[in-house]
Amino acid sequence: YEGENHNYIIRPPDNFKMIIDEGSQDGYSFAFIPDSEDYDSASIIIGVNIYKIAKKKNFDIEQLIENDTTSLRKHYGGNLSISNVAPLNNQNGDQLKTIYLNDTTRFIPNVMMAYYYGDDEVLIFDLDISPAIPRFLAEKIFTACLQHFKVQISTN
Fold this sequence. Notes:
Blueprint: E1 6-9, E2 16-19, H1 21-25, E3 30-34, E4 44-52, H2 61-76, E5 81-89, E6 95-102, E7 110-117, E8 121-129, H3 135-148, E9 150-153
Antiparallel strand pairs: 1-9, 2-3, 3-4, 4-8, 5-6, 6-7, 7-8
């Protein structure tokens, strides 16, 4: 993705493919799913949202994250546990603020979210699963995806 001042290279995890149309219908800029699966029944979805913020003054990434977590808590209810985890690093060594979601009373599809603030854009990575995949395996795939995410200064 060519941003205002940075180019973002986000490649799918091994054995995953990029889905644009169906992902965008769910509100993502695009998504990654396993190669052998269809979007509507995927065992794991890594959704990516790219938001331009160049024209917004006083942008606060922490406020964005707070708004997201408030919405998630409203959607899932009071048993939702939201915790900050150690930031994950991308290929450049930049940190992505990362949160972990869980509800010990029932299955929820949302597992983790990671946020990259690139001055002119914010990239949000969202890990969703079905009951068919263990959380720990999905977390490993998500982490690998973020670690291969690369940012370059634009030559435009």
